[in-house]
Amino acid sequence: MGFWSSVKDVLISGPTTAVKNERAEDAAERAPEQQAKNPPAQPKVEVPPAQAPQPPEPKAETAPEAAPAEAEYRTYTVKSGDTLSEIAAGYGVDWHEMARLNNLENPDLIFPGQVFKVPNS
Fold it and tell me: Using DSSP, how many helices (H) and how many strands (E) does the chain show?
């Protein structure tokens, strides 16, 4: 049996029992050396740091809050066919004021579903 036949047999059937035994013996001989070089890893145990209770933050003196924004304006949801000028006229306000309040770059371009702020008159 030639060298290539042996290689072919090993590739097809796997290593023979003798080869397996040699590998096991070699591993057993090297085990103490490897353990000395690479001791088994100790499991890491993380201990959470103790957390001291935090004192409450001092409250800053603030100016009294302004009236709620709802008092400054109402809202209107645009329907199909609406125009800004018609909406404004219906509430008795100027359409320029509505365009400014709603930050409209193009007051001629509005879409159904948009919600506009309507100034109180």
Answer: 4, 2
Least trusted range by pLDDT, from 1-5, 18-22, 47-51, 83-87: 18-22
Phi and psi of 77, rounded to 5°? -95, 125
Token digits of residue 26: 């070699």
Residue 3 amino acid letter: F
Which residue has 């404004």 as its token pair?
88
104 near 84, Cβ under 8 Å? yes
Nearest to 118 by CA among 108, 86, 105, 109: 86
List the structure tokens of 115.
């919600």
pTM: 0.42
Q: What is the pLDDT of residues 11-34, one digit of tens each?
A: 777 555 555 666 667 666 766 665
